[in-house]
Amino acid sequence: MRLQQCLPLLGLLLCAVGTTAQQGEELEGEFLVEISGTTVTITCPLEDEDIQWELSGKTQDTRERKFIIKDHDSTPANLSCSWGSTKRQLYLNAKVCATCEELDALTVAGIITADLLITLGVLILVYYFSKGRKGRASSAGDSRPRGQKMQRPPPVPNPDYEPIRKGQREVYAGLAPRAI
Length: 180
What we know:
With 180 residues, this protein is an alpha+beta fold. It contains two helices and seven strands; from the N terminus they run H-E-E-E-E-E-E-E-H. The strands form two sheets. The protein has a four-stranded antiparallel β-sheet, with no helix packed on it. Strands 1-2-5 form a three-stranded antiparallel β-sheet, with no helix packed on it. A hairpin with a 2-residue loop joins strand 1 and strand 2. The protein is elongated and about 105 Å long.
């Protein structure tokens, strides 16, 4: 029982350690790519400031840790940043859009909330307008009588499910549960 109580705590601990390890890996060896409109900003994973950038084999004149490509045309490119003998490479295949709008999380949450409220409003309207039509007879020409006036026919006898008669009990006596 104590093991079952500790499992959620163990799961939470493993998630926290895994997230911390992933964040450490991101800081050590991964490029950070940010896209805004047609501008692509790449941050080199190397910590130094005097970084040499190459874009598709051509040396760039910037020495900063962040490399900004303005008016990127969505063509794939090989990008590398180096400092001394350490070199990191990145294959950039970023799709950019000049006419796209960026949405923050609050805007998306507002759109979803508004959609749910409108759907709930339509649901309530349909419920209240259909509430009064329950007792009315339909004009579809249904000649079948409805309600309690109609009697049910007797059930069809099924020989497979007949009740056990007094004289037949010994036939079923061998079906008692057996002890194992």
